[in-house]
Amino acid sequence: MKTTGILYLVLLFIATATPAAGLASDEYSFALNDTGGYTSQLILDIYVDETGKALVIGYINEPRSLPFLETADYIYENETQQLYAITHALTEKSGDRWTLTFTTTANYSTYQVVFYLPPQVSLGRISSSDQLEYLVWTANESLVVDFHGYEVQEGPDVKIAYQQSLTTPAEVSGAITFDPGFIILIVLLAIVSIMLSVGIMMVRLGSEPGQVEKPRGAPKKESERTPGIAHIMETLTDRERAIVNALLKHNGEMTQADLRNETAISKSSLASVLRALERQQIVKKAWRRTNVIELSEWFLSQKGDEKT
After folding, report:
1. Nearest-angstrom CA–CA distance, 236 and 277
2. Which residues have CB under 8 Å from 250's CB, separation 6+?
3. Is domain 216-300 annotated with CATH 3.20.20.150?
4. What is the pLDDT confidence band of residue 180, given thresholds at 50, 70 and 90?
5. Residue 264 vs residues 116, 246, 267, 268, 270: alpha-carbon distances, Å
6. This prediction's pTM
């Protein structure tokens, strides 16, 4: 079976096995605004292999706002608004130089697109619409470029230039295939999805949450509090500061239920405060774990005395 066929089967499996975002009605979801109405959001992870082909996974309210889908192979779940796509339309090559272009045609209340470039590439010029900001870091020997913005209008565009060696393994063999590492990644995501689905079923069928004893182990390491972080926290409200303090104590990651218990903030108030912190780029939702809140990379990277 061809690699594309394998990916299709795996992607379809993930789409059916993964619980919908915002499964619990009292949890805070990026897809809802403060009045309960839906707003336009775009949250995507895009993995690019050595041949320029891209695997796109994430959430979008309006898939028609993505021009590349016209020629892509994709699956879109209307109920969950989840998108899975494979495309070669995002990249162009000239010699050993590549240009990745990502365009949209809609306005977004929440915009976050993270690009995972192939291993062993050198980054060139990065450009984007004025309303977007970006961060660059490395993960598993690959460069990662994270674009994000809020209340973004006029169809934001992104362009990334990068360079890799003239000869890649795929070009030597003459095959245009997806990096096996990405297939492994998708299989792992499918396994995690199954575990999450089974866990949810067990909780629903089992005893009350208060009767479940949490596993005992070493406490999580507390995140470092730099002068930059301390300065930002001085600008927060009491409730916002309580949430950030709790997350810092638990290595920057907690479930919403644990946050409610530790901060004694009501469900409705917690949702509102989390949205405010998310708009300030201080917290974010863990991808594919809709009940887990994390401190953002931008917030944790603050080392100076001023907010940048």
Report:
1. 9
2. 220, 222, 258
3. no
4. low
5. 38, 11, 9, 12, 9
6. 0.50
For 11-34, write each residue's pLDDT tens digit: 544 444 444 333 333 444 444 444
For position 211, what pLDDT does the model report? 40
Candidates 157, 155, 154, 95; CA nearest to 126 is 157
Domain boundaries of the chain, sorted by first residue: 3-193, 216-300
Distance CA 230, CA 242 (A): 13
Would you say 99 and 123 are in contact if contact means Cβ atoms under 8 Å apart?
no
